[in-house]
Write a structure and sequence with these properties.
Length: about 210
């Protein structure tokens, strides 16, 4: 089973890495691909070029077995719609179960995404959430009633189509806070992996006050 974890990763931080590790260990995912987005569609555009964000992710995951930096979005034009990203994974892995990792905030708006029901034809959804998270309501609750599984084994048995709610360690870390700290001269140590911090310091990323907004 393969996991797909997309994001701007501007920068990648310990919150991303810890939650991905929780999912990998809990569900027996053999590889998690970290996919930096080239052109965001559900948030502000990243201020750091995609090539540099890929370098940060590569530095972050280099020593973790089963974590892979995947730069496929750099080679595709247009917005980084998750449907097309997962379509490319499905072409590469036609029969293997795919899990698309997302946070609970993203899942709350999932039905407003591009082709959400068709995404479920390509992959399972693994929603990373607090252990005490409340269940969504409305149309999203109806989708959960139809697609949720409580058994991790179902994710291995089927290539796509299920939703699994996975409790994970919640570290209160945000990329925007990291950028703001660095912009005003504060340290990001212990918020990002040391190799990532080294690149940030060497290239003076986020020093500009542009990143405080």
């Amino acid at each position: 089973m393969i996991g797909v974890f997309g994001g701007t990763f501007d920068p990648v931080h310990n919150g991303h890495l810890r939650t991905a590790l929780d999912v990998q260990e809990a569900l027996g995912i053999r590889r998690i691909h970290f996919v930096p987005l080239k052109e965001a569609v559900h948030r502000d555009q990243p201020g750091t070029p995609a090539e540099l964000r890929c370098a940060l992710v590569q530095a972050a995951v280099a020593d973790q077995p089963g974590f892979i930096m995947d730069n496929r979005e750099l080679h595709r034009e247009g917005p980084s719609w998750s449907y097309y990203t997962l379509e490319s994974f499905r072409r590469e892995y036609p029969d293997e179960p795919l899990c698309f990792l997302m946070g609970s905030d993203a899942f709350n708006g999932y039905l407003q995404w591009h082709r959400p029901l068709e995404i479920l034809e390509l992959a399972h959804l693994v929603v990373m959430q607090r252990p005490d998270a409340s269940r969504p309501g409305g149309d999203l609750a109806a989708l959960l009633d139809e697609r949720q599984t409580l058994e991790a084994g179902d994710l291995h048995a089927l290539p796509a189509g299920r939703i699994f709610l996975q409790p994970v360690t919640q570290l209160e870390i945000s990329a925007s806070d990291i950028r703001q700290r660095i912009a005003v001269g504060r340290s990001a140590r212990f918020l990002v992996p040391e190799p990532v911090l080294g690149i940030i310091q060497q290239l003076r990323l986020y020093d500009c006050l542009l990143y405080t907004s």
